[in-house]
Structures are given as structure tokens and as C-alpha cells.
């Protein structure tokens, strides 16, 4: 992926052109440019969360009645989205092409804020307050002033590591947080990983777990510490967030252990961070005086996905984790092969009561395309998982407790 040249795109694309120059730059700073190989396809579902524009090349568009037409980069229609509402089902690259992917919800936030910016006095109703909240959080994050409680001490260094750094360097970084170091020794001696002899030193624990597993688990414990922090005015809601994230994390871990292509420790971490954007929303909502529970829930529902994406990108998480924060409630998400997001979508649905699923617009787990995907890949059935995996889930929960 590339970072788009904002100057070259200003005033070229419709929708982007509707924003002021400053807001255009804000939108494009978070957008990406992707290359498509000849024959590579895009489905219209990709446009649910993103605005997609053709920058270079040629696409063949499939229309609802089976008709086809060509879209070229020099066509006036290329100023608009590749997938206008309901008018195009699928697009295929005829030649090597480049597209711009911009976050639709962030565009809506910027546009709504722009529409209101002409008023010196604003009466914030529910939607207005969310826009104001989003703007405050985004500005704090962009300027480096977002002060999260109990910010993970070692996360930034762990996120920047790869296996070439070696186990010794990984041990050195984990030792910066004695609490995490102690937990890693406990984890290495847990039923999930224990061998004949118990380990007593961090170096031995990391050696037993291996670089990738140790790193994932150390980051997971950093995130767990953040989720268990206290936020003035939001302690009860943050406690519910921790319990929910723990449940989704444990289910994600157990689901991934039944897959060949999804790393269980990565799934454990993905389940923890899928709602991470709720924390800044809770912090700033407390400052803004959100008193009604339904008003706070609406703000969380509207903003946590986008804030989670921005937060994880800022922390240097890999794209697969960023995608989880973005699409954890994309119940009808379609993919060809299992991935982290599919696992978390199923885990989140399984973690809910029927009433919660109804409120979230989530179908019965058996109707999820992601569960069908996991079933085709590994024969996973929701009822069997919940009935047979209780001991395994308890062991996974112990990995995060401490």
C-alpha cells in the first residue's frame, strides 16, 4: 500500500472535493493507495466501509442486469466512486491499476463537522455531540496528546520487532515491565504450554514459547492492562468492556486452534483489541458529561470502529489487527479463506446473548458467512464449540488473568 499524494488528488475526486482543503488533507492522510493486478476483482461490499476511486488504469464493471462497462482513469466518471450506490456489483482490473481507499465514516464525520462550522454557537444533539467527540479524539490522537490510562510501557517496542531481533532482545524488552515478565513465566508453565520441567526465568519462558507466541502474548498482556484501567466517570462501563473483550478473546483463541491458517495467539490478541476504540470514547464522553446510558452507547457504537482503527495504526499494529477493529461487527463479511477478522466476528457473535445479537443486528451464529467459512475449512460448528471447548476456554482465560 502507498500513501496518497494529497496535493495531486485535491479537487480531482467528487465527495473529496466537497470538503475544505484542510479536511481533504485530513481524509487523505488516513487513506491508502492500493495496486490491482490484471484480473484482480473488487466486490461492491468493499464500498460499505470505504470510498473507492480509480486513480490509474482500467476496470471492467459488472452492473446489476448482467451488463458490463469499462471505467478508465481519464473518464469523467472516474471522479466518482467505483461503486455508486447499488449501481455496480463487481469491478475487475483490465490492466494493472491503482485505487484510492478512503474511510467513509471519517468522511461523514468531516463533512458533518464542516456543515456545522459556520455557526458560532452550536446546540449539540445526539448526532452533533458524536461529531464533536470524534473531532476532539482525532485531534488529540493526531497531535500526540491522547493520554490513555496505563499506557502499555513495552507495547511500542514490541510492535516494532520482528524475529530477526532475536529472543535475547525480546527478553530485554519484556523485562521493562516486571508484571508482564512474571505473567510470561506463569503462562509458560500453564497447561497450554507446559512440558515436563517448570521454567523459573523469563529467558526460559520465552525460549519455550518461541519468539512469535511470546511477543503476541506480551502485547496481549499490555492491552489487558489497558482494558483493566480505571477511567474516572466510566469505571462500570469499562469493566463491562474488559469482560466482553476477555470473552471474545478466549473464544477467538479456541476457534483459531481449530484452524490451520490462523495463529491462536494472534486471535487471542485480536479478540482483546477488537473494541479498543471504546476506551478513548469513554474517556472523552466522561469529560463531555454524557449522563444518559443510551446516549453513551450510541456514541460508542458510532465511533469505536473508526477510533480503534486510528489508535491501532498509531500504535503500529499490523493491518490484519486494524481490520479487526474496523470490521468486528461486519456480520455478512465475505472472504475466500479464514482470517483473523472471520474468527473474531464469529467469536463476538457467540459471546452475545440473543437479546444483544438482536440489538446489534447480528443474525444467529449459524447464519454468519464467517462461521460457514470456518466450517468449510475446519468443520467448526457453533454448538459443538461451546459444548466441547469449556475446559479449553477456561485455560485460555487463565492466559490473560493475573
Task: Describe the protein in words.
The radius of gyration is 22 Å and the shape is globular. α15 packs across α17. β4 and β5 form a beta hairpin. The longest helix has 23 residues, at 293-315. Among the domains are: 6-103, Jelly Rolls; 108-142, no CATH class. The chain contains 19 helices and 7 strands. Mean pLDDT is 81; it is low at 118-126. It is an alpha+beta fold and 402 residues long. The strands form 2 sheets. A 4-stranded antiparallel beta sheet has the order 2-6-4-5, with no helix packed on it. Strands 1-7-3 form a 3-stranded antiparallel beta sheet.
What's the average pLDDT? 81
Q: Going across the major beta sheet, what is the strand order?
A: 2-6-4-5
Runs in which pLDDT lies below 50 for 5 or more consecutive residues are: 118-126
Residue fraction in strands:
5-15%
Distance between the termini: 39 Å
Number of H/I helices: 19
CATH architecture of the domain at 6-103: Sandwich
Could you give the count of β-strands? 7
Helices and strands: which structural class?
alpha+beta
CATH fold title of the domain at 6-103: Jelly Rolls
Order of helices and strands: HHEEEEEEEHHHHHHHHHHHHHHHHH
What would you call the quaternary organization? single chain
Largest sheet: 4 strands, antiparallel
Question: Rounded to an integer, what's the Rg over CA atoms?
Answer: 22 Å
Q: Helical content, roughly?
A: 40-55%
CATH class of the domain at 6-103: Mainly Beta
Fourth-level CATH superfamily of the domain at 6-103: Jelly Rolls
Give the overall silhouette.
Answer: globular
Amino acid at each position: 500500500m502507498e500513501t496518497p499524494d494529497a496535493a495531486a488528488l485535491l479537487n480531482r475526486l467528487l465527495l473529496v472535493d466537497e470538503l475544505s482543503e484542510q479536511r481533504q488533507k485530513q481524509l487523505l492522510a488516513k487513506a491508502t493507495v492500493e495496486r490491482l493486478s490484471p484480473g484482480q476483482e473488487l466486490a461492491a461490499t468493499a464500498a460499505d466501509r470505504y470510498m473507492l476511486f480509480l486513480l490509474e488504469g482500467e476496470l471492467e464493471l459488472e452492473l446489476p442486469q448482467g451488463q458490463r462497462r469499462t471505467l478508465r482513469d481519464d473518464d469523467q466518471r472516474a471522479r466518482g466512486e467505483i461503486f455508486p450506490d447499488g449501481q455496480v456489483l463487481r469491478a475487475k482490473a483490465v490492466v494493472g491499476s491503482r485505487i484510492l481507499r478512503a474511510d467513509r465514516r471519517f468522511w461523514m464525520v468531516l463533512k458533518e463537522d464542516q456543515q456545522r462550522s459556520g455557526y458560532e454557537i452550536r446546540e449539540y444533539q445526539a448526532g452533533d455531540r458524536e461529531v464533536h467527540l470524534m473531532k476532539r479524539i482525532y485531534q488529540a490522537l493526531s497531535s500526540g496528546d491522547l493520554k490513555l490510562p496505563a499506557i502499555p510501557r513495552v507495547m511500542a517496542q514490541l510492535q516494532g520487532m520482528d524475529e530477526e531481533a532475536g529472543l535475547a532482545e525480546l527478553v530485554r524488552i519484556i523485562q521493562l515491565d516486571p508484571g508482564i515478565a512474571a505473567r510470561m513465566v506463569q503462562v509458560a508453565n500453564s497447561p497450554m504450554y507446559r512440558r515436563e520441567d517448570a521454567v523459573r526465568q523469563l529467558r526460559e519462558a520465552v525460549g519455550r514459547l518461541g519468539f512469535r507466541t511470546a511477543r503476541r502474548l506480551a502485547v496481549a498482556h499490555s492491552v489487558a492492562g489497558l482494558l483493566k484501567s480505571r477511567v474516572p466517570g466510566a469505571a462500570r462501563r469499562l469493566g463491562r468492556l474488559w469482560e466482553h473483550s476477555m470473552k471474545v478473546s478466549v473464544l477467538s483463541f479456541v476457534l483459531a486452534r481449530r484452524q490451520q491458517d490462523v495463529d491462536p495467539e494472534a486471535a487471542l490478541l485480536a479478540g482483546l483489541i477488537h473494541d479498543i476504540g471504546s476506551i478513548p470514547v469513554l474517556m472523552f464522553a466522561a469529560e463531555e458529561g454524557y449522563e444518559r446510558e443510551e446516549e453513551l452507547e450510541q456514541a460508542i457504537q458510532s465511533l469505536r470502529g473508526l477510533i480503534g482503527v486510528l489508535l491501532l495504526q498509531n500504535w503500529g499494529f499490523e493491518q490484519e489487527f486494524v481490520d479487526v477493529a474496523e470490521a468486528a461487527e461486519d456480520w455478512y463479511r465475505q472472504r475466500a479463506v479464514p482470517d483473523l477478522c472471520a474468527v473474531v466476528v464469529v467469536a463476538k457473535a457467540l459471546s452475545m446473548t440473543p437479546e444483544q445479537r438482536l440489538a446489534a443486528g447480528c443474525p444467529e451464529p449459524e447464519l454468519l458467512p464467517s462461521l460457514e467459512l470456518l466450517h468449510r475449512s475446519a468443520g467448526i460448528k457453533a454448538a459443538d464449540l461451546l459444548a466441547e471447548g469449556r475446559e479449553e476456554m477456561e485455560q485460555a482465560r487463565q492466559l490473560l488473568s493475573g
